[in-house]
Design goal:
Blueprint lengths: L1 E5 L6 E5 L1 E2 L6 E11 L1 H8 L8 E2 L4 E8 L11 E4 L9 H4 L24 E3 L2 E3 L11 E5 L3 E3 L6 H21 L8 E4 L3 H12 L5 E5 L4 H7 L4 E4 L4 H7 L6 E6 L4 H9 L1 E9 L13 H7 L2 E4 L7 H13 L9 E5 L4 H8 L6 E5 L2
Parallel strand pairs: 12-13, 12-15, 13-14, 15-16, 16-17, 18-19
Antiparallel strand pairs: 1-2, 1-5, 3-8, 4-6, 4-10, 4-19, 6-7, 7-11, 8-9
Length: 364
């Protein structure tokens, strides 16, 4: 089968023939039908995050179950599924306390292997690492049964794929990590795939105003399409402009959706006394961010982390797809362009062009 393989920092992705081993106990083989091109995967290309080479990336995906491993009874061949790249056991301390994203059983997914420490991909007989417990920049993949969430057959695969990360991460930050209430003021720093969904979540919550902040002026119309009532161009005076829109107080909630420390610090500057900044973007490994302890103390300001929308994907994916069905979530509108697997480098080139929203790989 064909896969997009990363062999070194800086790329590019190389389309190679890859062997896929059979599914083991409690695993399934999935034929990918769509995969999202997420900025998180690009962090590995840049070297900001690490996997041993060669590796096959990709974590937003949806497809069809093709083969069942031993012990799999909850899925059937031919079933449509959206993939969950951060599974949980629902039994450990954190899962029992509602924090499935902190699952102790599945904490090793960050190693880029299956739970047993091995991978299911082989290139010239040698192992190739994965994004998490599976990869999606490939025609087929092996997935733990806990990483498959069944969907109805009439849900488009490209819609389901984006729910597998960008939609859940963004909307969940506003609905699960915090409780944005009607009339709360919101600023979203970074209007990419995740940021657009934070805007959608703020709109669902009836926040007012909803301010999109980005360094790309072409994002203004896009941000307003997805829920922003105002747009501010990122820069040294962005927080001043945000405060002008909130009677010079600052926003109740500032969501940071990019990751670099300087963006986190900019978002913090925009919150009011008693407000909160929510860190949603994936920061470079080892990076640190500076805040004034005095300002935080005297202003009673808070900083919260939001991982994968603070949700249980087995419940959240169907809920968000329900919002899509009812017209409350714009997901198809997020797709700027569709690509074949061998166009993946073009897709990532486009990601950094002005006015881009989200690219999706479509598999035959």
């Amino acid at each position: 089968m064909k896969s997009a393989v990363l062999n070194n920092v800086g790329g590019p992705f190389i389309i190679q023939d890859v062997e896929l081993l059979p599914p083991q106990k409690n695993e399934v083989r999935v034929k990918l039908k769509a995969a999202g091109l997420c900025h998180s995967d690009w962090h590995f290309v840049e070297g900001m995050l690490h996997r041993p080479f060669p590796c096959i990336l990709g974590h937003e995906g949806a497809g069809i179950v093709e083969e069942l491993g031993e012990g799999v009874t909850s899925l059937r061949k031919g079933q449509h599924v959206v993939l969950n790249w951060a599974p949980s056991c629902h039994k450990c301390y954190y899962c029992q306390h509602g924090d499935t994203g902190l699952c102790e059983t599945w904490k090793d997914w960050r190693k880029g292997t299956m739970m047993d420490g091995s991978t299911r991909f082989r290139i010239d007989g040698q192992p190739a690492h994965q994004f998490s417990v599976f990869s999606t920049f490939t025609e087929q993949t092996i997935v733990p049964v806990e990483g498959c969430v069944p969907i109805e057959d009439d849900i488009p695969f490209e819609i389901a794929a984006l729910v597998g990360c960008a939609v859940t991460t963004g909307v969940g930050a506003t609905l699960n990590t915090v409780d944005v209430r009607p009339g709360d003021s919101v600023a979203v720093y970074g209007c990419g795939g995740v940021g657009l969904n934070i805007l959608q979540g703020a709109r669902l919550s009836n926040a007012q105003p909803i301010i999109g902040v980005d360094n790309d002026p072409d994002k203004e119309a896009i941000a307003k399409q997805f829920g922003a009532t105002h747009f501010v161009l990122a820069g040294d005076d962005a927080h001043t402009k945000v405060k002008e829109l909130t009677e010079d107080r600052g926003v109740d909630w500032a969501f940071e959706a990019v990751g670099p420390p300087k963006v986190q610090e900019a978002a913090y500057q925009a919150i009011r006394s008693g407000g909160a900044m929510v860190v949603v973007g994936l920061a470079p490994k080892g990076s640190t961010t500076s805040f004034s302890g005095t300002d935080m103390h005297l202003g009673q300001k808070r900083i919260l982390g939001s991982f994968f929308g603070s949700c249980d994907p087995s419940r959240e994916f169907p809920r968000l797809l329900g919002f899509y069905r009812s017209g409350q979530l714009q997901i198809e509108e997020m797709i700027s362009k569709r690509y074949s697997l061998d166009q993946i480098n073009e897709g990532y080139d486009d990601l950094f062009k002005g006015g881009h929203k989200r690219g999706v790989l479509i598999f035959d």
